[in-house]
């Protein structure tokens, strides 16, 4: 199933207009023709079935025949991840986090962040692709924060869970009941080298739970996948 993303501003009076890369993908890659059926999501819970009515060099106009709207799934999982050095691994983590259901992603500079190599335009494109790939209709918001403290102050959640490699498995169980009874839970994963002792102390002071992802030492991007997979 091929799904196309059209933001709400481009959906009016029973028609949706595909522009830029979405229009190119529909007309050039998928070779859509007038009369073909398309499925569209708007990133805010809307899902539309429509028929292609007009194709130009820069746009594809779709007449909407059916639409459905859904609320964001509960609980919402917010991923906080320390920025890692290799951009391809960071982008992999963002992509897989969204496919696994992250509603929001905050990338932050931590004490162990070695190098920042983040392209916001690529992350936004990845967010759209991952939403479509996983058949979701809500677009994940990806933000970059200059520090961990700023992210913790800005992001509103009910629970904070921190993946920490030094937590014993027997004492680092995830409280699934608490997560599922909440509206929003923040899942924190550190960069290369994990979190510093000062950062761990800050988490504890904010009421966070330190949890184990198992006995194996994981790369940051692998930890993201392992963490979010706990809630499928």
TrEMBL record:
<dbReference type="GO" id="GO:0070042">
    <property type="term" value="F:rRNA (uridine-N3-)-methyltransferase activity"/>
</dbReference>
<keyword id="KW-0489">Methyltransferase</keyword>
<feature type="domain" description="Ribosomal RNA small subunit methyltransferase E PUA-like">
    <location>
        <begin position="20"/>
        <end position="64"/>
    </location>
</feature>
<dbReference type="InterPro" id="IPR015947">
    <property type="entry name" value="PUA-like_sf"/>
</dbReference>
<dbReference type="Pfam" id="PF20260">
    <property type="entry name" value="PUA_4"/>
</dbReference>
<keyword id="KW-0949">S-adenosyl-L-methionine</keyword>
<dbReference type="InterPro" id="IPR029026">
    <property type="entry name" value="tRNA_m1G_MTases_N"/>
</dbReference>
<keyword id="KW-0963">Cytoplasm</keyword>
<dbReference type="GO" id="GO:0070475">
    <property type="term" value="P:rRNA base methylation"/>
</dbReference>
<dbReference type="InterPro" id="IPR006700">
    <property type="entry name" value="RsmE"/>
</dbReference>
<dbReference type="Pfam" id="PF04452">
    <property type="entry name" value="Methyltrans_RNA"/>
</dbReference>
<keyword id="KW-0698">rRNA processing</keyword>
<protein>
    <recommendedName>
        <fullName>Ribosomal RNA small subunit methyltransferase E</fullName>
        <ecNumber>2.1.1.193</ecNumber>
    </recommendedName>
</protein>
<dbReference type="InterPro" id="IPR029028">
    <property type="entry name" value="Alpha/beta_knot_MTases"/>
</dbReference>
<dbReference type="InterPro" id="IPR046886">
    <property type="entry name" value="RsmE_MTase_dom"/>
</dbReference>
<dbReference type="InterPro" id="IPR046887">
    <property type="entry name" value="RsmE_PUA-like"/>
</dbReference>
<keyword id="KW-0808">Transferase</keyword>
<comment type="function">
    <text>Specifically methylates the N3 position of the uracil ring of uridine 1498 (m3U1498) in 16S rRNA. Acts on the fully assembled 30S ribosomal subunit.</text>
</comment>
<feature type="domain" description="Ribosomal RNA small subunit methyltransferase E methyltransferase">
    <location>
        <begin position="74"/>
        <end position="230"/>
    </location>
</feature>
<dbReference type="GO" id="GO:0005737">
    <property type="term" value="C:cytoplasm"/>
</dbReference>
<comment type="similarity">
    <text>Belongs to the RNA methyltransferase RsmE family.</text>
</comment>
């Amino acid at each position: 199933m091929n799904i196309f993303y059209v933001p709400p501003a481009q959906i009016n009076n029973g028609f949706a207009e595909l522009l830029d890369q979405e229009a190119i993908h529909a007309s050039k890659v998928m070779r859509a023709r007038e009369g073909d059926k398309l499925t569209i999501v708007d990133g805010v819970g809307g899902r539309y079935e429509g028929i292609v009515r007009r194709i130009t060099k820069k746009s594809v106009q779709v007449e909407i025949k059916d639409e459905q709207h859904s609320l964001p799934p509960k609980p919402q999982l917010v991923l906080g991840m320390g920025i890692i050095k290799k951009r391809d691994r960071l982008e992999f983590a963002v992509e897989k986090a969204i496919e696994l259901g992250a509603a929001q992603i905050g990338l932050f500079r931590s004490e162990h962040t070695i190098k920042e190599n983040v392209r916001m335009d690529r992350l936004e494109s990845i967010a759209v692709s991952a939403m479509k790939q996983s058949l979701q209709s809500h677009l994940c918001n990806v933000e970059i924060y200059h520090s961990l403290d700023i992210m913790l102050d800005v992001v509103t959640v009910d629970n904070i869970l921190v993946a920490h490699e030094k937590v014993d498995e027997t004492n680092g169980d995830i409280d699934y009941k608490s997560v599922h009874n909440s509206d929003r839970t923040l899942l924190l994963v550190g960069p290369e080298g994990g979190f510093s002792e000062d950062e761990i102390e800050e988490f504890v002071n904010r009421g966070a739970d330190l949890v184990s992802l198992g006995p194996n030492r994981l790369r940051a991007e692998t930890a993201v996948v392992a963490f979010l997979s706990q809630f499928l």
